[in-house]
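Sample A.
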Amino acid sequence: MSGESAPPPRPVRTKSQRELTPARMFVYRLAVYLGAFILEVLWRTSRLKIVGLDRLETLLKEQGAVVPVFWHQHLLLAARFMCSNKIKGMKPGFMISPSVDGQAPTMLAQLYGAHVVRGSGSYTGVRAVRGVYNAIVKEGISPTITPDGPRGPRFKMKAGAIFTAQISGKAVVPIAYAASPAKLLRTWDKFVIPFPFAKLRIAIGEPYFPQKRMTEEEMEAAQLELERRLHETYKMAAQALRES
């Protein structure tokens, strides 16, 4: 033995080149457990009804997996819904930004037993594409994507979810929720946080089956169509909330 101590482990770098230092990871762990506690309070006290659940379960039975999408403002409880036992046949997964900002969401998703692929909401890198393909086709995982995340613009559909559906042959499924009472944050996405014991209505929208090959114009049209379907899905949830 030389008596020399081993060099300390090098901090992990993400795509953004910011370092995941031990101090940063410690803060993230605290934030994740606190976030999970708050999330469980909101989820377990909510008065939940689901609109169109049979549509999603039928698709899962037929296809084995789907590509769920919801706007970034609905991330909180829509993601919790994906990881719940409310959906027969669902194996939840998430595509999360490879930046440092995506580390805490990744840890939270893994805490709930979800599969995580680090990629972006636009066309992803080769490694992310391979990870998404293997997760869907080989493992039957449904990788949820927030198509206007992680930084917007709000309600603008990026191509990643459509591309994911193309390479896997699965349907894109719009999901939205409405809640009352709820707080709308002053963030770029107008993030929605329901109050404890809020009425919560989650809606499953009309699935979209993209063509295997698209021109640039066809891709833009598909993005606009999915934006429309996501907005219509929210209207379904809001209508169910008004009728309750």
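Sample B.
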Amino acid sequence: MVRVPLSPEDVRAGKLLGEMLRAARGERTLVQVALGAGISPETLRKIETGRIATPSFMIVAALAEELALSLDGIQGTLRSAVPGRLDSAS
């Protein structure tokens, strides 16, 4: 399977998602949040730094639940900040 290169919009959305998750983490450690969401700390580190720009839905949902974030809120923020990114995914 060939992976399609990420667009600049995908990269921007991934970085913004990482920033949102890091801000929501607050004083909790990366390890605490990762383990609470059922993912590895390294995976969360890569998401927060934008190295994984398109994490799976299940990972985003687990992190949203762990951080008490709304998936609708995440989508709305990304849609506002990176127009066209989520509209073309449907």
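B remarks: The two ends are 21 Å apart (CA to CA). The first helix runs from residue 8 to 25.
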